[in-house]
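WARN retry 2 of 3 for item q-0093 after timeout on previous attempt; input resubmitted unchanged.
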Amino acid sequence: MVGLKQSFCWWSFARGQYTPEQLLRAAADIGYQGVELIELELWPLAKDHGLTIASINGGLSIERGLNRGEHHDQIEAQIRATIAEAELWHIPNVIVFSGNREGLDDRAGAAITAEGLRRVARIAEDAGVTLVLELLNSKVDHPDYQCDQTAWGVEVCRMVNSPRVKLLYDIYHMQIMEGDIIRTIQTHHPYFAHYHTAGNPGRHELDALQELNYLPIVRTILATGYDGYLGQEFVPLGDPIAGLKHAFDLCNVQ
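OK item q-0093 returned
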């Protein structure tokens, strides 16, 4: 069994201590194979260091997303443009969001979100790009966000019924909302096209001060046959490169 490919989210590590060149070079030297959510102007530099751009934002805000039909025309145009960029740059994942509830019933919100995704599913299929609807917590970081339960996200994917519309299973966010991480991965992994990590509580390093046990979690992901990226998305309290190295080594299991 080969270990998981690992990536890291640019926003949480590029915090001014290092130049982009230094951070990208260090990550590649550690063994990272991808970087996520990095600014467009840095894509060539990431590629120069052998790093795949593993995910980009589909142009949606977290709060104003797919669960409102009146947004669909604008969102479709944004997602179409992002898919075209992703295809050109060989980026496997485009992240999309449900939006906030704002009083919207969960069943109705799921149906509207699925309707919006169906409008762009075939385009994603033709481009070989996966749209990943991100699961986020609404308890701590994103109050009122609608896609805050695995079951809700899975139902949306079932309604769309496309091999290129899946979920981004963020382990940190789902630990806050529902826990039971390993059993959830074992049960629903066919709907998970991408994973993110962070320590909980705090969203910091994957260290002994947080409650998630990443070693068996990573082994569970491996056992499903997953061949995508595991994206480190914690905000380091210490040196970012040291945090990247520790997380990589912890998750580099076979």
